[in-house]
Amino acid sequence: MARASITERFDEYFQVLLATSPEQLEQVYQVRYEVFCQEFHYLAETQYPDHLERDEYDDFAQHALMIHRASRRPVGCIRLIKANQGGQAYTTLPFERHYEPLPDPPIDPGSLRRDRLGEMSRLAAVEAFRRRQNDEKKPVSLTEAHEPDAAGRRSSFPFIPVGLFMTGMSMFLRSSTDIAFAMMEPRLARLLQRFGVYFTQAGELVDYHGPRAPFFLERKGALDSLLPEVSELLSLIDTQLFAGTPDQSTSGHEER
C-alpha cells in the first residue's frame, strides 16, 4: 500500500477555516488566551476576565483557525492584519512599535504604501497538540529535528507549525498586500528556510517576549522556493480556507 503523502495526512487530521462567525472568533480568542496569557504569561490574565485575548488590531485582521478533525478541538490560530482595510488605515502595524532599523536595512517600512502592507501575528498552537509533536516550549516552534523531506519521515513532519505558516501565506497571497511582516526569532526564520519559506530580516533584534526581530515576506517570489510537499500542502490549505470563493488560488494569484 502506498504511503500517504504529507498533504493527505494533514487533510486526514486537520482542517483550517476562516474564522468569521462570532463562535469561530471566540475560539480564536480562547486559543490566544490559553497560550499567551495562561501558559506563557506574555499578557496578564487579569486583562481578559472573559478569557478571550483580543486587541485593537483584530478588527483590521483576517483570522484563521486550525481544527482537529476527530475531536473538533481548536489546534491553533493565526491572523493577517491589513494596514488598510475597508478604507480605514492603521498608522502603525504591531511590529512597527518595536521596529529598530538595521544599519543597512533591506526595506524601509515607513516609505512603503500602507495599503500594500500586512502582518502575520498571534500565531499559536495549544499545548496539548504541541506535546504530541514534541515541539519546544514555545507558542509555535520548529526544531532541527523537524525534517522537511517527506520520504520515510512523515510522522516527524511538523504539520501544525508549517500548516499555520501556510495558512498565513494563503491569506497573504489572497489579500491585496504585497509585503507581509512578522515578529519572530531569527532561528525560526532560518528553520523555515528548510521548507522553502524565506523571510528576510527587516530590523534589529529586540526584546519582545524574548529576542525577536521583524522579518518580511514579499509576494513576488514567495512560492518559488517552496519544497514540492510544502507547495502541495499550501494548495490544500488554500482550498480549505477559500473553497467556493470566486477569487484566484495562491498558485495563480496575480502579482501586484
UniProtKB/TrEMBL annotation:
Entry keywords, A to Z: Acyltransferase, Transferase
A Pfam family matched in the record? Acetyltransf_5
Q: What molecular function terms (GO) are annotated for this protein?
A: acyltransferase activity
Instruction: State the InterPro entries in the record.
Output: Acyl_CoA_acyltransferase, PEP-CTERM/exosrtase_acylTfrase
Which residue windows are transmembrane per the record? none
**Where is the stretch described as Disordered?**
131-151
Lineage, top-rank taxon, reads: Bacteria
How is this protein named in the record? PEP-CTERM/exosortase system-associated acyltransferase
Q: Which organism is it from?
A: Thiorhodococcus minor
